[in-house]
Design brief:
Arc Repressor Mutant, subunit A, 198 residues, mainly alpha, 75% helix, 2 domains
């Protein structure tokens, strides 16, 4: 492993290799913390992807704001920034969950466009683009219409999926076998996917 200060300097000079090195070193510890958090509070599992993205963003923020004069190492500084960012994201996601169903943009979708990691993190906020916001609003309306058109059983399956509980628990609660629950959930997910992609 290279000297951390050298890697930080290289990242600030837009070196993607150095960013990947720092991220690969930091992600192991942060993933362990995230998994421990999810193990304690299972409903967070549905937010795992969003929280992983918050990890990546917080590492970039730590790189930009860290100074060697600080009285701590970069690793501890970045871990603290990541923890704070994840808790902030959890509060925000919890608010969205309570407010109702909201579709969330994942960085993974943008990564499929073969953009570099650094470019994605530095790029402008897509929600400021009026065309994108209109498309998101239309997709949300299509999802809501799809959920409204579902029969009672599919609506129950959809709502139980949103809770993030284990399939075995939810299938017993709904009086279904595990396979029946899984098959119905697969169909519900397909309906939602079709509504988004229309």
């Amino acid at each position: 492993m290279e000297n951390m200060n050298e890697l930080l300097y290289m990242v600030r000079m837009k070196d993607e290799w150095a960013l990947e090195q720092i991220y690969s070193e930091m992600v192991v510890g942060l993933d362990a913390e995230l998994n421990a958090l999810i193990k304690i509070y299972r409903p967070l599992y549905i937010y795992r992807d969003e929280l992983k993205q918050e990890e990546m963003i917080s590492i970039l923020a730590a790189i930009e704001n860290y100074r060697p004069e600080r009285e701590c190492s970069f690793r501890s500084y970045a871990a603290t920034v990541a923890r704070r960012q994840m808790w902030h994201a959890l509060r925000k996601l919890n608010h969205q969950y309570i407010s109702g169903f909201n579709s969330t943009l994942l960085l993974d979708d943008a990564m499929l466009d073969q953009k570099s990691f650094l470019t994605l993190l530095i790029s402008k906020d897509v929600l400021s683009d009026p065309v994108y916001r209109l498309e998101m609003k239309e997709a949300q309306l299509r999802i809501k219409e799809t959920v409204d058109k579902m029969n009672d059983r599919d609506t129950q399956i959809f709502n139980s999926w949103l809770t993030g509980k284990k399939y075995t628990e939810e299938s017993k609660r709904l009086g279904l076998t595990y396979r029946q629950y899984e098959a119905r959930l697969s169909r519900v997910r397909e309906k939602i996917r079709d509504a988004v992609n229309n």
